[in-house]
TrEMBL record, chain A:
It comes from Mesonia hippocampi. This is 3-oxoacid CoA-transferase subunit A. PANTHER family: ACETATE COA-TRANSFERASE SUBUNIT ALPHA, KETOACID-COENZYME A TRANSFERASE. It is an enzyme of class 2 (transferase). It holds the Pfam family CoA_trans. Keywords: Transferase. One of its GO terms (molecular function) is succinyl-CoA:3-oxo-acid CoA-transferase activity. Signal peptide: none annotated. The keyword RNA-binding does not apply. Its EC number is 2.8.3.5. The keyword Transport does not apply.
From TrEMBL, chain B:
Gene3D superfamilies: Glutaconate Coenzyme A-transferase. Its EC number is 2.8.3.5. It is an enzyme of class 2 (transferase). It holds the Pfam family CoA_trans. NCBIfam families: pcaJ_scoB_fam (TIGR02428). It comes from Mesonia hippocampi. This is 3-oxoacid CoA-transferase subunit B. Belongs to the 3-oxoacid CoA-transferase subunit B family.
Length: 232, 217
């Protein structure tokens, strides 16, 4: 059996360097690789290109890297809820590439599955399609979007085993599965790490082949961005 | 004239039995509150859930269960979770029956702008471009005019586009309109609103044929 386990986040992030491109899972603050982000802050890795649906909030998630000006470029679909982000973007310190959410997922998945590019109707006729090839299929115009190329993918799962198999929980799944195997090295942090054989193979969401390193996260805050409730 | 809840209530009448529906942020979210109990419908949130339920009771919030507005939610019996690629596969593959979203501007040819005000607001398009490019049944929920009193139903959008020629129906605080080849076809008036008032608030070509009935809410 192939073992993917590494001791801790330090070992999991071995090889990260300034100027690299990282994919980071999560939607808002839900299902983000908190431990990897904290370690990137600690290591003070600079000039990062981040492929992530959102950019966190001012004091959590990718907002922590933004605060320390470690990010050179953000590739995201939605970057609201983050004042520091807006400031850096408007002042030109931060390069931002806004991409439709489904296209973002598809470009990650294309990288995972070996497609050099995909055609999508999203963004046709808008500024997103500027300088991109377009083509008609079945009477409808589509835009050619190339697969992402990344050095590391940092994902967060609920449960994982030593073989790298992953199971996600609720809507914390989001972009995480699409990014597994989409970068040169995929690092998975999990809340619960069990020996291979303990997870039912029928329940695995992502097979271990897409994961190079797996570790149990030391701490998950799992902050809620918008706490909405109803009264009993 | 309708308020936001009134717009949502009118749109709820467009939700048919057996529909899978994607609701955007803002007025569209309110539509779920007005769908009749005898209609079976599943709400999709593009961050990865089908069968979205109401907000949780206090103390039962789950950080791993949110909607696309990042609000804590619940899952109904029969719900499912999936990744973002699968989610947009449902949307791109036209498996979602109805998409309801807000807009800053709609043009008489069905173009929509709702994601960017250059120099002012740059938050991103989220899933809006994917939704409008693929959905065949798109209802826009919005106020008929902006805060300055200017029409949001235009000959041509002035803001950066989200999608081209995609809007099929619009429900505003003043009217229900369909987008047809010649422009905005007036279908219904909001209670107490005259055809003249709607005409005055509509910059794009407004098509008025025969007697225009008042909405039944």
């Amino acid at each position: 059996m192939i073992t993917k386990t590494v001791k801790n986040v330090q070992e999991a992030l071995k090889g990260v360097e300034n100027g690299m491109t990282f994919m980071l899972g999560g939607f808002g603050l839900c299902g983000i690789p908190e431990n990897a982000i904290a370690e990137l802050v600690k290591l003070n890795i600079k000039d990062i290109t981040c492929i992530s649906n959102n950019a966190g909030v001012d004091d959590f998630g990718l907002g922590l890297l933004l605060q320390k000006k470690q990010i050179k470029k953000m590739i995201s679909s939605y970057v609201g809820e983050n004042a520091e982000f807006e400031r850096q973007m408007l002042s030109g310190e931060l390069d931002v590439e806004l991409t439709p959410q489904g296209t973002l997922a598809a470009k990650c998945q294309a990288a995972q599955q070996g497609f050099p590019a995909i055609y999508t109707p999203a963004g046709y006729g808008t500024e997103v399609a500027l300088n991109k090839e377009t083509r008609m299929f079945d009477g409808k115009m589509h835009v050619l979007e190339e697969a992402y190329k990344a050095d590391f993918a940092f994902v967060k799962a609920w449960k994982g085993d030593t073989a790298g198999n992953l199971i996600f929980k609720g809507t914390a799944r989001n972009f995480n599965p699409c990014m597994c195997g989409a970068a040169k090295i995929t690092v998975a942090e999990v809340e619960e790490l069990v020996p291979a054989g303990e997870l039912d193979p029928n329940h695995i969401h992502i097979p271990g082949i897409f994961v190079q390193r797996i570790f149990k996260g030391a701490h998950f805050e799992k902050r809620i961005e918008q706490r909405t409730v109803r009264q009993k | 004239m309708l308020d936001k809840n009134g717009i949502a209530k009118r749109i709820a009448q467009e939700v048919k039995n057996g529909f899978y529906v994607n609701l955007g942020i803002g007025i569209p979210t309110l539509v779920a509150n007005f769908v009749r109990d005898d209609i079976e419908v599943e709400f999709q949130s593009e961050n990865g859930i089908l069968g979205m339920g109401a907000f949780p009771f206090e103390g039962e919030e789950d950080a791993d269960l949110i909607n696309a507005g990042k609000q804590t939610i619940t899952a109904l019996p029969g719900a499912s979770y999936f990744d973002s690629a699968t989610s947009f596969g449902m949307i791109r593959g036209k498996h979602v029956d109805l998409t309801i979203l807000g807009a800053m501007e709609v043009a008489e040819n069905g173009d929509i702008a709702n994601w960017k005000i250059p120099g002012k607001m740059v938050k991103g398009m989220g899933g809006a471009m994917d939704l409008v490019a693929s959905a065949e049944n798109i209802i826009v929920a919005m106020m008929h005019t902006n805060k300055a009193g200017e029409s949001k139903l235009l000959k041509k959008c002035s803001l950066p586009l989200t999608g081209v020629g995609c809007v099929t129906k619009i429900v505003t605080n003043l009217a229900v309109l369909e987008v047809i080849e010649e422009g905005f076809k007036l279908i219904e008036r909001a209670p107490g609103v005259s055809v003249e008032e709607i005409q005055k608030a509509t910059e794009g070509n407004l098509i008025i044929e025969g007697e225009i009935p008042e909405m039944e809410l």
